[in-house]
């Protein structure tokens, strides 16, 4: 989806600072449109969280950041994931053509 934006001739006529601001400011809607256009589906699964005792017993003292885990970052709520799925289903129900998706991405 970002590739779509970068392939627009008018995008390259903007100063680099404006290009960066445009990408930072609108990546969310472009990402959502890309998911809808590519018909990306996903399932939600509950991630098991080990107990504190298990973490203490199994964690090696020499390990600084855990065993290859991603740094702590906020996880999406179930409501946010359901909202995303609802948005995608709304787009899919419209049965938009590639040209219509391109028009939406351009606005």
UniProtKB/TrEMBL annotation:
<dbReference type="InterPro" id="IPR000536">
    <property type="entry name" value="Nucl_hrmn_rcpt_lig-bd"/>
</dbReference>
<dbReference type="GO" id="GO:0007623">
    <property type="term" value="P:circadian rhythm"/>
</dbReference>
<feature type="domain" description="NR LBD">
    <location>
        <begin position="1"/>
        <end position="107"/>
    </location>
</feature>
<dbReference type="GO" id="GO:0005737">
    <property type="term" value="C:cytoplasm"/>
</dbReference>
<keyword id="KW-0675">Receptor</keyword>
<keyword id="KW-0804">Transcription</keyword>
<keyword id="KW-0805">Transcription regulation</keyword>
<dbReference type="GO" id="GO:0000122">
    <property type="term" value="P:negative regulation of transcription by RNA polymerase II"/>
</dbReference>
<keyword id="KW-0963">Cytoplasm</keyword>
<protein>
    <submittedName>
        <fullName>NR0B2</fullName>
    </submittedName>
</protein>
<dbReference type="Pfam" id="PF00104">
    <property type="entry name" value="Hormone_recep"/>
</dbReference>
<dbReference type="GO" id="GO:0003714">
    <property type="term" value="F:transcription corepressor activity"/>
</dbReference>
<keyword id="KW-0539">Nucleus</keyword>
<dbReference type="InterPro" id="IPR035500">
    <property type="entry name" value="NHR-like_dom_sf"/>
</dbReference>
<dbReference type="GO" id="GO:0005654">
    <property type="term" value="C:nucleoplasm"/>
</dbReference>
<dbReference type="InterPro" id="IPR033544">
    <property type="entry name" value="NR0B1/2"/>
</dbReference>
